[in-house]
Amino acid sequence: MQNSILKIEHLSHRYSSSWAIRDINIEIGKSGVTGLLGSNGAGKSTTMNIICGTLNQTEGNIFINGVDMRAEPQRAKTNIGFLPQTPPLYMDFTVDEYLGYCADLRHIPKASIKSAVKDAKERCGIDHFSNRLIKNLSGGYRQRVGIAQAIVHRPKLVVFDEPTNGLDPNQIIEVRALIKDIAKDRAVIFSSHVLSEVEVLCQDIMMIENGRIVFSDTMNAFNNYVQPHCMIVSMENFPSEDEILKINGITRVEVLTPRRARIYFNGDQEIAEKVVIASVQHDWRLREISLDKTSINEVFAQLSKNSTNSTI
Ligand SMILES: Nc1ncnc2c1ncn2[C@@H]1O[C@H](COP(=O)(O)OP(=O)(O)OP(=O)(O)O)[C@@H](O)[C@H]1O
After folding, report:
1. Which InterPro entries match (predicted)?
2. Which atom of ligand 1 is least distant from the CA of 161?
């Protein structure tokens, strides 16, 4: 790939005797959000810690903007910002003290620290909390401070390890919006074990299971790959299963309540239209019809299962 910000070649890591990740190869471009999706223990944090230079790999190479992390770690790290799963915050520092300290650690020249901190605070919407002790901020604002430290040195690649974990629903929406904004002018890698979160945020998706990449492509390709094959239907006058099975393309009906069912179909994307037409013709009084996203989760489970069957 021309213009790649991150290139990973044959990356493997072993903790004492067992392999956590095995032969991972990844290349990502200079902008946009790439989602790293995997269940608990799949190997996301291990991969991210190695990318960010906080863990030394057992085998393989990492290049950040063409710079080899092993050969020139300091130079490679100038282009990386990292928000680990547990944000490295000092609770007794104010926001300004903490971000100033982080900017200094990142070798920002003394004369530029103030403006770098100001930019990061503005970007993350925390400039009104400059003098607040971090321990007195809410979870969502602490996470913003964590994000601000990850971008204070204006890196070309920012890595977020499960950044919405432990936040309430409103905070999750705000942090997602912030990540989207940050990705406008740099590359972002974002890990999660929640498929719906990766779907709304990322253009590209990599799935890791059992230490191996089991899927790596665009979000569009993933959605095409996992075409839904069932939908939820509610009707006032719910017909018999046999009546529904008469609609061409429907293969199975799973009754959920007397007026609601999950309907499986054979991939025919016009099936919803056919159900609507049949409902009008037979006066079934359709109240709800929606593609069932659980079928996507089933594919995720299937990909995970395939990788569990392979030996690491
Ligand atoms: N310090 C460690 N020592 C030994 N084994 C470890 C260590 N850290 C992680 N592991 C193991 O390596 C594997 C991958 O863990 P990792 O934390 O990378 O997964 P993850 O996808 O980030 O999971 P989670 O979503 O739970 O954080 C797991 O089997 C885990 O138990």
Report:
1. AAA+_ATPase (IPR003593), ABC_transporter-like_ATP-bd (IPR003439), P-loop_NTPase (IPR027417)
2. 22
137 C-alpha to center of ligand 1: Å? 29
Q: Please give the distance, rounded to the nearest whole angstrom, from the Cα atom of residue 80 to the centre of ligand 1.
A: 22
Q: 4-225 with 230-292: one CATH topology?
A: no
ipTM of this complex prediction, to 2 decimal places: 0.96
Q: Which two tokens stand for residue 237?
A: 């006058």
With contact defined as beta carbons under 8 Å apart, do 116 and 71 qualify?
no
Section 146-167 average pLDDT: 93
Q: What is the pLDDT of residues 214-256, one digit of tens each?
A: 889 998 888 776 666 788 999 999 999 999 999 999 999 999 9
Please provide the CATH number assigned to the domain covering 230-292. 3.30.70
Residue nearest to atom 16 of ligand 1 (CA): 43
DSSP secondary structure code for residue 133 in this structure: B
Q: Is the CB of 46 under 6 A from ligand 1?
A: yes
Instruction: Read off the pTM.
Output: 0.79
Q: Are 252 and 262 in contact (CB under 8 A)?
A: no
CATH number of the 4-225 domain: 3.40.50.300
| Residue 193 CB less than 6 A away from ligand 1 | yes
| Cα separation values, 116 from 30, 299, 310, Å | 22, 44, 47
Tell me whether residue 218 is exposed, middle or buried, using C-beta atoms within 10 angstroms of its C-beta: 0 to 12, 13 to 18, 19 or more: middle
SS3 2: coil
Pairing of strands 286-291, 230-235: antiparallel
Q: Return the ligand 1 atom nearest residue 45 CA.
A: 22
CA-to-CA distance for 191 and 205, rounded, in angstroms? 10
Q: Is 38 in the pocket of ligand 1 (CB under 6 A)?
A: yes
